[in-house]
Amino acid sequence: MKLNTTPRVLYYHIVADKFPEIYPYGISVSNFFKQLGQLKRRRYKFRSLSEILANPKRFNDKDLALSFDDGFSANYPVLIYLCKEYNIKPTVFLIGKCVDNKEMAWNHKLLLMKRYCSLAKLSAEINKYVPGATISTLFSRIEMSEKDEITDAIWNEVMPFSQSNYLQKHKPFLSLTQIQSLQKAGVDFGIHSWSHPDFGRLNYSEAYTELDLCFTQNEELSLSFKRYFAYPYGRPAQKDIETKLIKNFQLLATFGISYGLGDNRLPYTRWQRIKMDSSKLVNREQFLVMPWLRSIKALRYNFQ
Ligand SMILES: [Zn+2]
């Protein structure tokens, strides 16, 4: 019996030989192309997300789409290379406020503070704003409506340089010119929210604003984006909120990361993606085993 015949969407954050301080996790360029080579040898085919979403029924689990989250400039050479040399058209999900290095998101601020500031000093500051929280529990303890205000306040206390100076010096995100040249090369763009919140903890009006700011900016900058939305951290909005977002913004698909049996088919609008830029073992697990484990778990849950 063949259980899983749905196309798969893979996602990466950084494919580079030097990871940026603002997000120092990813896969090296040589390991990435090794991975693609292995998949090609196993007869997987690379499709663009738009090709798959136009008619998912035509594709099966041997069809893969590549996507990249957050819009880091470190990926620029690889993205161009994929289009021009491999004829693979990836999709990049951009964080609205980070486009053209205007701002960084709260999770980037925290990563940089962890790098530049002693843990004791940072913990003391966090405790002032969110009593009882630590650097590792802050994600779940902080109110989403206060995440930017609080991380900015902590930054101002502990960091030796401003956020705008850092962004100007390091330019960790894709510039407008880079986005335009990637678009010309065949890369598609989707949205990844305005400020990278946990959508599971947003009410409808907050979730609406997150998407509205992105679409308004795209219009102002004359950028053509696909109506695809990848949830930050893969954490989806509550079902009724998602339904309203899909209707209001005419979203063609939303993307989570809890891949399981029966996902990635029409009329299902939420697609699941598989993280591919961690260690080799995790990649194998994620790619080959996790969908099955999740399916078994879901079946067991349904029969209880
Ligand atoms: Zn992200």
Please explain how this structure is put together:
- This protein has 304 residues and is an alpha/beta fold.
- It has two domains: 8-95 and 175-303, TIM Barrel; 102-172, no CATH class.
- 45% of the residues lie in helices and 12% in strands.
- It contains twelve helices and eight strands.
- Strands 1, 2, 3, 4, 5, 6, 7 and 8 form an eight-stranded parallel sheet that branches.
- Helix 4 (106-116) runs parallel beside helix 7.
- The longest helix has 24 residues, at 280-303.
- It is globular and about 55 Å long.
- It binds zinc ion.
- Zinc ion (ZN) binds next to strand 3.
In short:
It is built from twelve helices and eight strands. The chain is α/β, with parallel strands linked by helices and 304 residues long.
Provide tags for this entry:
304 residues, eight-stranded parallel sheet, TIM Barrel, binds zinc ion, 8 strands, 2 domains, alpha/beta, 12 helices
Computed over alpha carbons, the radius of gyration is: 19 Å
Structural class: alpha/beta
Q: What CATH architecture label of the largest domain applies?
A: Alpha-Beta Barrel
What CATH first level of the largest domain would be assigned? Alpha Beta
Share of helix, binned:
40-55%
Low-confidence stretches: none
The CATH superfamily of the largest domain appears as: Glycoside hydrolase/deacetylase
